[in-house]
Amino acid sequence: MTNMDQKTVAKLEERIEEAIAEIIVKMGLKKLPLLPARLTMHLMAKAAVTVYEVAVENNK
């Protein structure tokens, strides 16, 4: 796995989680079948950052 700075990883996870939450709230139940729990959105953000870290590693 990549050697990204943990502060950078944490900040990226935080910002992506905020973006996910904002989008899901804006779309709401009219478009989505479920409003996920905050923990689920946090895990979605962590997964996205992990995919990014793999992309960085594969680009080396």
Write structural notes for this entry:
This protein is an all-alpha fold and 60 residues long. The protein has one domain (6-58). It has helices at residues 6-31, 38-58. Helix 1 (6-31) packs across helix 2 (38-58). The radius of gyration is 13 Å and the shape is elongated.
Features:
60 residues, mainly alpha, single chain, 78% helix
SSE string, helices as H and strands as E: HH
Please report the number of helical segments: 2
What is the mean pLDDT?
93
How many strands appear in the DSSP assignment?
0
- Domain module tally: 1
Helical percent range? Answer: over 70%
Shape: elongated
The poorly predicted ranges are: none
Radius of gyration: 13 Å
Strand content: under 5%
- State the end-to-end CA separation: 11 Å
Structural class given helices, strands, pairing? mainly alpha
Largest sheet: none
Please sum up the structure shown.
This protein is an all-alpha fold and 60 residues long. 78% of the residues lie in helices and 0% in strands. It has one domain.
SSE topology sketch:
Elements: H1 6-31, H2 38-58
Helix pairs in contact: 1-2
